[in-house]
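Check this:
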Amino acid sequence: MAKDKEITLEDLPGVGAATAEKLKEAGYDSVLSIAVASAGEVVEITGLSDLAARKLIKAARDELKMGFESGFDLMKKRENLLRISVGSPKLNAFFGGGIESNGITECYGQYGAGKSAIAHQLAVNVQLPKEQGGAEGIAVWIDTESTFRPERIKQMAIKVGLDPDKVLENIKVARTFNSDHQMLLVEKVADLIKEGMNVKLLIVDSLMGHFRSDYMGRGQLADRQQKLNKHIHALLKLATTHNIVVYVTNQVMARPDTFFGDPTEAIGGNVLAHGMTTRVYLRKGKKGSRVAKMIDSPHIPEIECPFRITEGGIDDFE
C-alpha cells in the first residue's frame, strides 16, 4: 500500500494521459485497482490490445509485489482487520470477536429470525470507537426489501450512548428495485469511498431477493447464476480492496426431499455458497430467543449461540 501511494497510473508502462483519464473515469484510479483487474476489463475501458493490457496489469502487480507471502506475514496482516461488534458479547465470541472485514458474512433464515436486526445493530456499532467494538466509520445500506427502519436505529443508538441523529446521518441508504439496480449501487459504493467517505460497513438486505424475482424458472437459472457470481465478486473486491465489513442477508427455501431434520436451506446455490466467507443460519429458539449456527467459516468450528432481540438491540440470551 505504501508503494501504491508512491506511484501513479501514468508511471505504468503504456499509460499516457488519455489512457489514465479513461481508467480513472471507469473507477480504476490507483495502481492497486489495475493490479486486481482482468485483462478484458482493461481492454474494454482503454482500447489497448490484449497483450498491452496484460503487460500493464503485470507491471502494476510487480510494483505492489503481489506474489506469495508467508503464513506469518498473513497472520500479521489479519491483526489489522476490522471486527464490528454485534452487541451481544456471546455472539461476538461466536463470530470470533465480531463480524470481520476482508470478506462477506452471510446470515440466512426464515422471516423474523433476526437477520435485519443484526444489520441494524452493525449499522450503529460501526460508528463506535474501535476499543468499543466499532470502526469509527460510515455504513452503507442497500435495501432490497424495504427493511431499514430509522426508528430502530435511534433505539439502538441511545442504548450504546450515541447521538441518534448523528448515527442516522452516517448511514447511507439506497432502495433498489431490481438486480441491475442492486449491482449498480455496489459499484457506487467505491465512488463514495473515493469522494472521501469513511465507509467501513456495507449491508445488502437481502442479497437474493431481486435475483429470485427477476430470474424465474430453470430456463433462466444459468443467466442468474452468472450474474450473481459477478455481483459477489464485486462485493469481495470492495471488502478486500478497502478493508470494509460486508454483511448480507439471504432468503431461504424448504427442501421437499428432506424427510428428517430441518429442511431449511439458503437460496442461491453453489455459486453463492462458494462466494461467502462466513455463512450463518439463524432460527427462532425457545422463550423468544434466536439461535445462530455457524454453517461455514475458514476458522470457526460448527457451533451454535443463542441470543435475543431487545428494544435496545442484540443482547445475550441467558
Observations:
- Confidence is low (pLDDT under 50) at residues 1-5.
- The two ends are 45 Å apart (CA to CA).
- The first strand starts at residue 83 and ends at 84.
